[in-house]
Amino acid sequence: MTDPAFLFPGQLSETIGMGRDFFESDPESRRLFAWTSERCGRDLERILFEGPEEELHENLAAQAGVFLVSTLAARAAGRAGIAGAATAGYSLGNYAAMVACGGVSYEDALEVLIAVWRETERREIRGAMGAVIGARRDAVEAACARLREEGAPVWIGNVNASTQFILTGSEAGVSRALEGLRPRSLSVLPLSMRWPIHSELMRPVADAIAPLVSGLSSLRDPAVPYFGPEGARVDTGEEVRRLLATAFCFPTLWKDTFEALGGSGFRFFLEVGPGDMLTKMARWIDRTTRCEPAGSLEAIARAAVIVRAE
Question: pTM for the complete prediction?
């Protein structure tokens, strides 16, 4: 049997109904739902199971919901006999990846997530994000640099694959970048995000939460390999602390992270959380690897059969 690496999805993977099977089948899951809802000031049971969509996609509900369901999926996988041989997270998914590798407690990671939301809202930081598919990276970088020089800040926020990128920054910067890149891309698509995540515009938030992160007591060296958003393995609790405090200000280099996992010998992956976004991305990056969804009890049961056969 080969233990897979666990991949944790990010925001926009949330769907109505996610996590219901964990909630209904396990008392500990219900307790974590209740505790997370209390800390967030959101009725996550109602929002995740009933919606409406606009409440589900509100930043705090979506982020806490994906983090919660991903953590419950990892715990359910463990009960099914599936151990994560390594962890990695896409953007928001790094919270769950850090918890699953033993680098930080769920409770402390949630406090950081809430603090980022609170300080972003308090400062009324707003922006936009958009996808660029089928473009050369140098062309995307050049377009963003040109717009920054013109006073319309925009950056590459996520590198999903060789020719797939998420832009982040000001509304004007992202809008102009998407229009400028449209003739040189297969497609461009504005996203529903209204925060400039993974950009320098989030730096005031990092400064504001620094005292909280510096005081966290649960930080530990990862017990299993954790591959962070910068595309490399993270070996110490202090590196985990740094990423908790600042990762939302810098790009998520998902392609590099996935390739670093592959270069370390990991070829079999489970997407531990809602949706199948990372399963699709795995095929874009390296078709010789295998990735299977594992975000529900049914999917975890199927994954357990595959794991035993590997």
Answer: 0.97
